[in-house]
Amino acid sequence: MRVLIGCEYSQIVCKAFRTRGHEAYSCDLLPSEGGFPEWHYQKDVLEMARYAWDLAIFHPPCTYLTVAAEWAYKEKQTKKIKEGTLTGKERQKARDKASDFFLSLANMNHIPKIAIENPIGVMSSRYREPDQFIQPYEYGDDASKRTCLWLKNLPPLKPTKLVTPRLAKTKDGRGYTFRWANQTDNGQNREPPSEDRGKIRSLFYEGWAEAMAEQWGGV
User: What is the model's pTM?
Assistant: First the structure.
C-alpha cells in the first residue's frame, strides 16, 4: 500500500510499515530524525495528503487540543503563564486553529482508510467520540498514556502484549495502585521540565506502530 504518516518526523510508524513492504512516507514541517530522509517529505501535510494514498495515519499536534491545563483557556486568564506562552483568549484562537487542522485531515474523503491519533481532548466534542482508546502497556511498552484513535474503514487495534505494572502506595498511604515506568508514584509523568519535554512526550510508541503496520497493513 501507499501509506502517508502525517505529522511524523521520528519515522517510527513509517519504518514499521516499510519493514513490511509498504511504500510508506512520513511528512512533517520538521526534518526527519528517523534516519531515512528519502522516505520523508518536509512539507505541509495538507499538501501531501491531496495525492493518492491507500492509507493515512495522522498525528496532529495536540498542544491546544488536549484538555490538560484547561484553566489556562479562560478569557480572564490575561496573564501569560511564563514568557512565550499565550493568554486565555490567545489559547482559544490557537485551539480553534488546531481543531480546524484536525478536521481538515479527518475530511480527506479521497483517502479510503484514515486513522487519527491524539490524546484525550476537545475533539471528542468538536468532532465525534473516538472509535478506540489505546494504552502503551497493551502493546509491549512499559508506559501509561491513554490515547484516542479515530478510524475510517479500519478495525480497532487488538492488544499485542500486556506489560505488568508495579504497585505504588496511594496518596493517602492507605492502599496501593498500579503505576508504569513513565509515571511517578503519584501518577505524574516522570519527564522533567526541559526545552525538549514536549517533543519527548509526543514521540510515538513503537508497540503501537508495530501493531498498526501488522494489523492494518493487510486490511
Answer: 0.88
